[in-house]
Design a protein that fits this description.
Blueprint: H1 14-26, E1 31-34, E2 40-43, H2 45-57
Antiparallel strand pairs: 1-2
Length: 58
Amino acid sequence: MTKLLTTQEHQPTADVITQTIKDMALKDELIRERDAEKILNCYKPTYFYTEQNLAQLV
């Protein structure tokens, strides 16, 4: 995940990313789910619920 979040101007460490995910989840600013392969997926609540509602409509 660190590679995906790294730019030339910003190089986060794995510890900082982990702590940010935990902090956001505790504040209900992030929804975390593990998929069938046990990969952690993180979503902003607005996008998560919008995607779920669209899937139901389809």
